[in-house]
Design brief:
Low-confidence stretches: 1-61
Number of helices: 15
Oligomer: single chain
Largest sheet: 8 strands, parallel, barrel
Distance between the termini: 76 Å
Strand content: 15-25%
Shape: elongated
CATH class of the largest domain: Alpha Beta
CATH superfamily of the largest domain: Glycosidases
Helix content: 10-25%
Radius of gyration: 32 Å
């Protein structure tokens, strides 16, 4: 009571001893209003109040009344739907000797109701209406806070083992150029990204199994990209609003949304460690005791923390103590309520080397995660001895994967996958890489295809747990920490999309840019040696993977491994291929492949399908001009349609093309300009097109003797 008594005395002195110093009634009222504001008393004072007689007494009674009432309790989980189970923690801004009581049977809580325990919280696993009240001797009881929690039935999914994930953002999707922007000075590029995904929802839904979304929570804007969350329950952030997030997750279906989970650390709302929305406790025991917060000279010095960190400390923000049951319950409750409400079904865990992997297996189990992958990047040291370093990295990542299988709290774990950073290193060492360090470009133009066969990568040693990638928001994009040489990015995709593991495609490799630093977007760039751009190339490989049912645990046999060439046989449940990566001439000499032409090839890669050889189709074309000719072919491996080059011998005026023997049909188009590839929608591109020609099995010669004028509907 001492603190409250001093406050009352202070306010009374301010109100009654300064009468001669106040020159008008309005000034007197304004002064008292300031007292209320400055002491965080949430009293709304309107103009009518100012006209009441006896203002000093009136405001004094307001101050006295609210100082003498316990503050309204705060719930860690907002009301609404939830899945599986949640634990609600209750805190109160009136501290010391506060007793909290609750009911879950619609009755009003009193001191005779269930007493709240801060160490266990309130576990909820059925639909209930929670009502909470707080008491303290000598003060008026608090207002009652009410929240209805409605349990939902968890939907079950069957994962497509041939699926591919899209990273649904890059580092420039919510940019903060050199910490130039803050909440008070918002970047004009903020708040647009969910709409960008929405604009591409149809393309995404038809191609990808999962979409990895950026961190969904409100963040410290020094990290506008979301990796320093300060209000986990607030899903309005620098990418867009909660409503936009919910809408775009619905729009991409049947593709499913994976949330980027940042639970190694949290940022304070206004300073180092004032966690809000949710706040799990009124003390610092949720923070690891070896966090820099507790060091001498920092705000937490002399305060009590939790256990020491179970991993590598992340120094910029407060590391959470995952051994603390309150932290564990708070995290899975947030995932089961706030995140699942907007439609997330799985998790990409950020910076998992910061805490023990067994907690990942526990969070997966408590949330019944459909998909889980951890970012275990062993170290940011890229150029050590390859063999020693790769073996070390494999050991560290696989140890972490094994930890995710450990049960805790008598709960059987649901294990996680991990990004194959060993393979990322091997791709970089095979094809060359560069990074930007202190404004300087550091590059390595190595070329060693044998590294693609290195058994330390997860795809060769533990493929069902591997999530493979070429680059992501850290290694590439605008951060460029460790980026693959651009000219070899399509070749790297020819590798990961035909091999075991669960591939992840970078947004900037598939789509074109519409904001920010557009130079990183390569979707429209031509893949060397093909008639496809990056997007078409990746889409073709995804479709081939689906058609042959190449799965994350498919059988792989390496049949060639030299510095100049790598080749492997991959067997899907509906077909078999041989993939060659490298610049040296090579062709398979195996049963079902001998003499076959590749079904798809480009600079430094080729793919053969067993017992499938593209058909050489000869064309008799009646034309009197020298326009560039292309064929639009559909069916078989050509899908809904793609452009194929028509080879023309000017000396003999003969034409031919190689197409899938399961293709359905084609047409011939004349190109007005010197286009590398036609575009149906481009002006001054296609001048004439032939009628559709249906293919007949066994027929390899066709006549094209009529054309009709064509103009796009722009």
């Amino acid at each position: 009571m001492k603190t409250e008594s001093y406050l009352i005395l202070f306010f009374l002195i301010l109100l009654f001893s300064c009468e001669n110093a106040i020159t008008s009634q309005d000034e007197d009222i304004n002064s008292q209003q300031n007292i209320l504001r400055n002491n965080n008393l949430t009293i709304q004072i309107n103009q009518q109040d100012k006209k009441l007689d006896g203002n000093k007494l009136y405001y004094s009674e307001i101050i006295k009344e609210h100082i003498n009432q316990v503050k309204t309790p705060i719930l860690s989980v907002p009301a609404g739907d939830f899945w599986n189970t949640i634990t609600v923690f209750v805190t109160c801004d009136t501290t010391e000797d506060v007793s909290i009581y609750y009911t879950i049977d619609e009755t009003e809580p009193t001191e005779s109701s269930s007493k709240y325990s801060a160490s266990t919280g309130i576990k909820i696993d059925n639909t209930v209406t929670l009502k909470v009240i707080a008491y303290k001797n000598g003060l008026e009881k608090s207002e009652i806070v009410t929240a209805k929690y409605t349990k939902q039935t968890a939907q079950t999914y069957t994962e497509n083992k041939s699926g591919v994930m899209l990273q649904g953002f890059n580092w420039d999707s919510a940019p903060n150029y050199g910490n130039e922007y803050k909440i008070e000075k918002a970047n004009p590029e903020w708040g647009k990204w969910y709409r960008t995904i929405q604009e591409n929802a149809k393309e995404i839904s038809n191609t990808f199994e999962y979409v990895w979304f950026p961190p969904p929570s409100k963040t410290d804007t020094a990290s506008s990209q979301g990796y320093a969350p300060n209000e986990l329950n607030n899903l309005n952030n620098c990418y867009g609003t909660e409503d936009e997030l919910r809408e775009v997750i619905q729009a991409i279906k049947p593709a499913k949304a994976i949330a980027d989970i940042v639970v190694n650390h949290r940022a304070g709302t206004t300073d180092w460690a004032d966690f809000t929305n949710p706040r799990w406790t009124n003390d610092c025991t949720c923070i690891c005791s070896d966090d820099t917060f507790f060091c001498e000279g920092n705000p937490g010095y002399g305060k009590t923390g939790g256990n020491d960190s179970s991993g590598t400390l992340y120094k910029p923000y407060r590391n959470l103590d995952h051994y603390n049951l309150i932290v564990q319950q708070g995290i899975y409750s947030w995932m089961n309520s706030v995140l699942k409400r907007v439609g997330f079904v799985g998790w990409r865990y950020d910076y998992v080397k910061g805490f023990d992997g067994k907690f990942i297996g526990y969070y997966n189990a408590m949330t019944k995660a459909e998909f889980s992958v951890g970012e275990y990047w062993p170290e940011y040291n890229y150029d050590q001895n390859p063999q020693t370093n790769e073996e070390n990295w494999k050991t560290k990542i696989n140890k972490w994967l094994e930890k995710t299988k450990e049960p805790i709290n008598n709960v059987s774990a649901v294990s996680s996958r991990a990004f194959d950073f060993v393979l990322k290193r091997n791709l970089n060492k095979a094809f060359g890489w560069y990074k930007v360090e202190n404004g300087q470009i550091i590059s390595n133009n190595s070329w060693n295809m044998s590294l693609l066969a290195n058994k330390d990568s997860l795809i060769h040693s533990n493929s069902s747990a591997a999530v493979t990638f070429v680059d992501n928001h850290d290694t590439g994009s605008t951060q460029q920490h460790w980026e693959l040489n651009w000219e070899n990015v399509p070749t790297a995709y020819a590798f990961i999309l035909t091999h075991p593991g669960f591939p992840c495609v970078a947004w900037q490799h598939y789509f074109t840019g519409n904001s920010g630093k557009d130079w990183q977007y390569r979707g429209n760039e031509t893949v060397s040696g093909t008639n496809k751009n990056f997007k078409e190339h990746i889409k073709y490989l995804i479709q081939l993977r689906q058609n042959l049912k190449i799965e994350y645990d498919s059988k792989i046999i390496v049949i060639e491994s030299t510095e100049t060439n790598y080749a492997a046989n991959i067997t899907g449940s509906k077909g078999e291929i041989i993939v060659k990566i490298g610049g040296e001439l090579w062709s398979p000499n195996y049963n079902g492949y001998t003499g076959n032409y590749p079904i798809y090839s480009g600079t430094n890669f080729a793919i053969w399908q067993k017992d499938i050889a593209p058909t050489l189709v000869n064309l008799n074309i009646t034309t009197s001009d020298s326009s560039k000719l292309f064929a639009w072919v559909w069916g078989g491996i050509h899908g809904n349609g793609e452009w194929i080059d028509i080879n023309r011998d000017n000396d003999t005026n003969t034409f031919n093309m190689r197409i899938d023997n399961n293709a359905s049909g084609f047409l011939v188009a004349k190109c007005l300009s010197n286009f590398k590839k036609p575009d149906w929608n481009a002006a001054d591109c296609i001048s004439y097109k032939s009628p559709d020609i249906l293919l007949t099995k066994g027929t390899t010669e066709y006549s094209v003797d009529s054309f009709m004028e064509y103009s796009p509907n722009l």
